[in-house]
């Protein structure tokens, strides 16, 4: 049975999938390129990318960095997000029109609880050794349906701060990555440097809108507690941990685009 917290998350992210595709994914390229660079995705033979949103970046990665013979497994908790991602790969002009590129997606929710496990070796059966393979499925970052030590590159752009238990997600990242593999996360940074979301919070507050009780967990917690997160990661076995801040600029060319992005 799927955890009610997971079902809640699915409903929430399903409800904003189209808005995310229309307004946000073009902006979050910025952190994505950093992650792909620092996890050395271009050298990897088995990449796992989690919480891909609507797949804009995933398509970019497969078209620019994914090597011949390499596999990219991508996951999402939201079926709507994954459907939008799939539609990008299905387009005639896109990934599939290139020889040796193969993509398949499943929307089976059985993987949400972490088993059965999906193996890249099984996915590659019947394929040419030189094929670039993309496989997408529904999964929860905190309980992954993949065997131990399976990927040499793990990327989680903008989702560690959102999951129910970030330590569970870190532990799973460590488990599924092979020794010597690269693991990368991007998360929200310093609250005082972020302008657009606190603005929304202030508007809600001023007009007495939103929930009476504020959530105790926020998207800024990982950043605020980063030395504790580093300690926890070291304890789990991660080595050579680097953390840094990187500015991300939003592009709002009109008031309408600002309003729709924030208030949509
Ligand atoms: C802020 S978006 C980031 C999307 C994309 N990676 C990007 O960089 O734009 C967060 C994504 O995480 C997904 N998500 C949230 N909780 C998740 C979980 N526990 N497991 C898997 N995906 C999750 C959401 O459906 C959403 O698409």
Question: Which fold name corresponds to the CATH topology of the domain at 4-187?
Answer: Rossmann fold
Q: How much helix is in the residues? A: 25-40%
Report the uncertain regions: none
Bound molecules: S-adenosylmethionine
Quaternary state reads single chain
Count of DSSP strands: 6
The secondary structure category is alpha/beta
**What fraction of the residues are assigned to beta strands by DSSP?**
5-15%
| Level-1 CATH class name of the domain at 4-187 | Alpha Beta
Strand order of the largest sheet: 3-4-2-1-5-6
The string of secondary-structure elements, in order, is HHHEHEHEHEEHEHHHH
Radius of gyration, taken over Cα atoms and rounded to an integer in Å: 18 Å
CATH architecture of the domain at 4-187: 3-Layer(aba) Sandwich
Estimate the global geometry from the Cα principal axes: globular
Distance between the termini: 32 Å
Nearest-integer average pLDDT: 93
Major sheet details: 6 strands, parallel
Count of individual helical segments = 11
The CATH superfamily title of the domain at 4-187? Vaccinia Virus protein VP39
């Amino acid at each position: 049975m799927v955890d009610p917290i997971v079902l809640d998350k699915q409903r929430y992210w399903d409800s904003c999938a189209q808005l995310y595709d229309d307004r946000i994914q073009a902006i979050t390229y910025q952190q994505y390129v950093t992650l792909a660079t620092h996890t050395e995705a271009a050298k990897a033979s088995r990449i796992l990318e989690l919480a891909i949103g609507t797949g804009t970046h995933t398509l970019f990665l497969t078209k620019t960095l994914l090597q011949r013979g390499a596999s990219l497994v991508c996951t999402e908790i939201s079926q709507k997000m994954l459907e939008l991602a799939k539609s990008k790969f299905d387009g005639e002009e896109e990934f599939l029109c290139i020889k040796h590129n193969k993509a398949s997606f499943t929307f089976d929710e059985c993987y949400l609880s972490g088993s059965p496990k999906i193996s890249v070796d099984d996915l590659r059966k019947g394929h040419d050794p030189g094929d670039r393979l993309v496989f997408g499925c529904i999964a929860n970052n905190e309980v992954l349906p993949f065997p131990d030590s399976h990927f040499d590159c793990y990327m989680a752009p903008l989702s560690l701060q959102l999951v129910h238990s970030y330590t569970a997600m870190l532990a799973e990242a460590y488990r599924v990555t092979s020794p010597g593999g690269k693991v990368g996360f991007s998360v929200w940074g310093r609250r005082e440097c972020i302008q657009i979301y606190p603005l929304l919070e202030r508007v809600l507050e001023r007009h007495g809108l939103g929930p009476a009780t504020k959530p105790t967990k926020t998207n800024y917690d990982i950043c605020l507690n980063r030395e504790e997160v580093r300690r926890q990661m070291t304890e789990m076995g991660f080595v050579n941990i680097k953390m840094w801040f990187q500015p991300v600029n939003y592009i709002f060319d009109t008031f309408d685009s600002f309003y729709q992005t924030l208030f949509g």
